[in-house]
Structures are given as structure tokens and as C-alpha cells.
Design goal:
Layout: E1 36-71, E2 79-81, E3 84-93, E4 99-134, E5 142-146
Length: 154
């Protein structure tokens, strides 16, 4: 046993009071609760469309022009008058003296003609359907979105 100690004279003899210090703490937890689900489906539709497409075609007309002239020197192999290309046709003629006879010129002209052609084209479009399915299993809202042009057909 420990002998009881005597308080020193400068200490008070009153009993000590204890003040409890309390701290509250909280524990936070979360749970995942399924409130519903969605069904996503896609539908592809095809549509036949006719487009007018410009088509460029070129035609050449050949005109033979008789010249029948004797010449001293051969002309240029090819010459142009505007859009017309002219090719000389030469023939050697045997005579006492040999001369060049320009028999004819061939004139080739280019004509451009713009026409329009119809073309049948198949266009496809996709449609996405989203249905929200609540926990009970009954679909509630149907949302559909179509093509990349931003048009919305529900």
C-alpha cells in the first residue's frame, strides 16, 4: 500500500473536477441504386433519289477544204485559227518539174456541249431509338435522332 500523501499546504483540498471533451465523427457511405435502364437501337432506311448532274462532252467536226495549189515550200505541219486546228495534206505530183501541190486542208474544230444526265442514287439514313426502361420494366419515353443533317423525326 501506498501511504496516503498529504497535500502540500499551498494546494487546495477541494476535489478535482473532470470535464469530458467529446468529439463527434461521421461515417459517409453511398450505394448504387438502379433506377432504370435504357434500350438503344438503330434503324437504317433507304430512299431512292434522282439527281441532275451536269455532263461535259466534246465533239470534233472534221471539214475537208480542197486547195489544189502548187506551192514552193511546204507549210507548217500544224497551225491554228482560233480553236480550229489546220493540218495541211501534201501530195507530190510528177511533172517535168516537181512541185508541191496543196491538195486540201483538214480543219478540226472542237465544240463543247453541256448536257444534263439523270442518275438514280440510293441514300441511306440511320435512326437511333433510345427507350428508358424503369426498374418495373415498362418503357416510358422513346427518343429518336436521325441523319447527320440535324433533322429530327419522332
Amino acid at each position: 500500500m501506498i501511504p496516503e500523501q498529504q497535500p502540500p499546504e499551498n494546494r487546495s483540498t477541494e476535489p478535482k473536477q473532470v470535464i469530458p471533451v467529446i468529439e463527434e465523427r461521421i461515417v459517409v457511405d453511398k450505394q448504387v441504386v438502379e433506377t432504370g435502364s435504357v434500350r438503344v437501337s438503330k434503324r437504317v432506311s433507304e430512299e431512292e433519289k434522282t439527281f441532275e448532274i451536269p455532263v461535259l462532252s466534246e465533239e470534233y467536226s472534221v471539214e475537208r477544204v480542197p486547195v489544189n495549189q502548187y506551192i514552193e515550200t511546204p507549210p507548217e505541219a500544224v497551225r491554228y485559227e482560233g480553236d480550229t486546228m489546220i493540218l495541211p495534206v501534201l501530195q507530190e505530183v510528177v511533172v517535168v518539174e516537181k512541185r508541191l501541190l496543196l491538195v486540201e486542208e483538214i480543219r478540226i474544230s472542237k465544240n463543247q456541249k453541256m448536257t444534263s444526265a439523270s442518275q438514280q442514287v440510293t441514300l441511306r439514313r440511320e435512326e437511333v431509338i433510345v427507350d428508358r426502361i424503369p426498374v418495373s420494366g415498362n418503357p416510358t419515353v422513346g427518343i429518336s435522332r436521325q441523319d447527320a443533317t440535324g433533322s429530327d423525326n419522332q
